[in-house]
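Batch queue: ligand-bound targets. Current item pairs a single chain with 2-acetamido-2-deoxy-beta-D-glucopyranose. No template structures supplied; prediction is de novo from sequence plus SMILES. Inputs echoed for audit trail.
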Amino acid sequence: MTRRFSLAKNFKHIMALLWLVVLYTYLGLAAALSKEGWRSQSIYQLLTDRYARTNGSEAPCSDLGNYCGGSWQGIINNLDYIQTMGFTAIWISPITENIQGDTYDGAAFHGFWPQKINQVNSNFGTAADLKGLSDALHERGMYLMIDMVTNDMAWEGNYTTVDYSIYDVFDDPSYYHPYCPITDYQDYTNAVECWSGDQHVTLPDLATESTVVLNKWQTWVSNITTFYGVDGIRLDACLEQDQQFFTPFETAADVYIICEVYDYPVQKVCDYQNYVSGLLNFPIWYLVIDAFESNSGSMSNLYDGITQMQGNCTDVSLLGNFVENHDVDRFPYINTDSALDQNAIAFVMLNDGIPIIYAGEEQYYSGGFPPADRETTWTSGYDTTNIYYQLIKSINLFRACVIANDPTYLTTNSVPFYLDTQVLGVKKGSTPATQVVSVFNNRGIDAVAYNFSMPGTGWVAGDIVYDIYTQQNVAIDENA
Ligand SMILES: *[C@@H]1O[C@H](CO)[C@@H](O)[C@H](O)[C@H]1NC(C)=O
Ligand SMILES: *[C@@H]1O[C@H](CO)[C@@H](O)[C@H](O)[C@H]1NC(C)=O
Ligand SMILES: *[C@@H]1O[C@H](CO)[C@@H](O)[C@H](O)[C@H]1NC(C)=O
Ligand SMILES: *[C@@H]1O[C@H](CO)[C@@H](O)[C@H](O)[C@H]1NC(C)=O
Ligand SMILES: *[C@@H]1O[C@H](CO)[C@@H](O)[C@H](O)[C@H]1NC(C)=O
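Prediction returned. Tokens below.
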């Protein structure tokens, strides 16, 4: 009896140990998403201050230029809304302590005015809350991407008054470029070596080409990603930093970085992918807005843009596609035609690369110039019934299903194959049996039905395909 009992007891211990090992491995895997692992993700971008309050209050915010009360705990409490929409990762605002209080240019609710990088922004919660958010995501099999500013520190006042001793790491003028204002973002040296900001909030520009500055950022980022279990980084203002900074910084971070190179020329933007894994797909964003902002937008430029990106970028599957973000006019601000908006959303979600939807896009928010485009998500009541939430959810779930069925879907480049003045056809996938054929148009909500034939899908009459828009099987006819 004694022996059997002790065996049973040991068995329990072994099981407990195994369970711990399994749990640890699971958490370890979740926290160590590879760069390639980002390809299959779908990202929901939110501003921490604008997504959800800790106490759940959905009262309107009286001033979008100031803090509205969103927090990391608020996000934790409202992850179902995001995960149910099919997202597998969130991108949150920069986490560091910023300029305190209100300024002539508003408050640092966006997180882009760093001062103390070893402290978290207390408006968003505590370090434990942030760790809690990371854990909560990983427990769901989701991932955390944080926004980061390495280009500069921030100072309330003009450049003549900066007191460098207030910064906790970069506390000496020797870490910075001497003052000069950026006057031409197209001039590499001027953009990299001069300062942005204005006379009310100036942004002392770190010498990111200096080894001393790089090493300090490497030490910092390596600790931050491990400490908080960060899976990816969105890096701010890449056009304003030395290109040589990115590779060693990403190596130290040991996670995927997606850079903000806010510019149009395809060759210029793609060149940055020689230095960093990921890029926000600004060239395609310009073309998407142009194609869908009106019934006469250019479908052919978008058609050409797809292959130009493939030809110029190292790996289009690691780009991040978007219609909206916190810096640009929301689509419905430009045009209220909901059919155009839905086409734009569907295009970016199915294009080569990673879909990114900006909080409020699924609620048809219509803000223009910042901070108007930084609305509070809670004002919507987190409605999950509207057509945009449902569309995004359908495409996310569909894409996940396609990825699961076709191991090379993500790395098989899109093939634009059909074009007329208002319609664009694109196919993507390794075989006709698993491929996705997407048809986009800018005919708008009032368009009347018409028939047209679209050769080149690779399908033949009688093939049965699944239509994700109507969610029905349809047969290909002779006119395919
Ligand atoms: C909820 O929190 C906000 C700030 O985040 C605060 O302004 C508001 O008074 C709180 N509401 C309640 C009912 O406690
Ligand atoms: C790592 O970062 C955390 C959070 O900022 C901080 O508390 C900790 O002291 C850092 N560790 C090291 C070794 O710098
Ligand atoms: C900078 O601010 C200081 C203090 O407000 C002021 O005296 C000075 O004239 C300003 N200089 C410039 C160049 O704006
Ligand atoms: C790169 O993009 C440019 C347009 O910006 C295009 O003319 C060129 O053909 C592209 N290169 C390749 C190899 O596709
Ligand atoms: C399109 O073709 C189908 C099948 O031939 C036909 O039933 C339908 O009426 C046509 N619609 C229009 C708008 O011509």
